[in-house]
Amino acid sequence: MQPYGVVIPAYNAERTLAEALGSVLNQTVPPAEIVVVDDGSTDATAEIAARASPLVRVLRQHNTGPGGATTRGAQAIGAPILAFLDADDLWLPDKMRLQLRVLEDDAGVALVGCRMRQFRHGEADDGTGAVRGGLLRPCVVLRRPVFEAVGPVIDPPGKRGDMVDWFARLRAGGHRTVELDQVLALRRILPGSLSHGRAATRDIGYLKVAHLALLRNRRAASGGDEG
Predict the structure, then answer these.
(1) CA-based, 20 to 30 A from 188: which of 10, 23, 61, 140?
(2) How far is CA 102 from the centre of its chain?
(3) Model confidence over 50-75: pLDDT tens digits?
(4) Number of Cβ atoms within 10 Å of the Cβ of 103
């Protein structure tokens, strides 16, 4: 199997990052490299990442949002396969082996996703949490040239919806994706995290993403003539 690198954007993630990194390091097919992008944290995020493993490289930057951190991390990876994980989520041990096998068996597949189960911070995953499908940052594994073709992950206002926009651009580019029906990742329900709950100032990003998708569809329908 081709080697892969893992990108973990992290902001004030000292409560969860060690466990997230452990789930990467415990993969049945281990990574060739791990890049943690400390997105302007004010806690011990960078220190926790640095002492986790010699495989981990820490990049620090001013706070830009998870999209900018994801892009910077992806650009720093040298491996031909990319995988992403949010700093408060987890992978199940066989995730990468199963997804890498799909990429190996079919050269026409650009990206492989999976399903993701929720669990509550401070409680062990008991297998009963809600299961989500679709393309989500912690679920996807893709070929490096595909990421480069789609372009950077853009942080919308409120810093929510960055990957929604990126995946919309992936589809618009005609890249072929496969989603495995298995649960291979766990989403932590963590009060105070960027993705937790609803907030108008954060959710405005989804409106921006929808607007960008509408403009792309109009340009495609008109043959690219609209501005």
Answers:
(1) 61
(2) 19
(3) 999 999 999 999 999 999 999 999 99
(4) 22
Domain membership of residue 162 as a residue range = 4-221
Phi, psi (degrees; rounded to nearest 5) at 39: -90, 60
Give the DSSP per-residue string, 11-45.
SS-TTTHHHHHHHHHT-SS--SEEEEEEES-SSSH
Give yes or no for a contact between 139 and 90, defined as CB atoms under 8 angstroms apart. Answer: no
Residue with tokens 């199963």: 98
The verdict on residue 226 lying in a domain is: no
* Cα Dmax for the chain: 53
Alpha carbons 111 and 147: distance in angstroms, whole number: 9
Q: Which residues partner with 81 through β-bridges?
A: 4, 143
| DSSP 3-state of 117 | strand
* Residue 202: inside a domain: yes
Report the pLDDT value the prediction gives residue 191, as an integer from 0 to 100: 78
Q: In Å, what is the CA distance from 136 to each residue of 20, 66, 85, 178, 179?
A: 16, 13, 9, 13, 11
- How many beta carbons lie within 10 A of that of residue 224, not counting itself? 9
**Residue type, position 10, single letter:** A
CB-based contact 98:22 (threshold 8 Å) = no
For residue 92, is it within any domain?
Answer: yes
**Is 44 domain-assigned?**
yes
Quick: pLDDT tens for 175-189: 999 999 999 999 999
Short-list 184, 148, 208, 135, CA closest to 24 = 184
Q: Assign residue 164 the CATH number of its domain.
A: 3.90.550.10
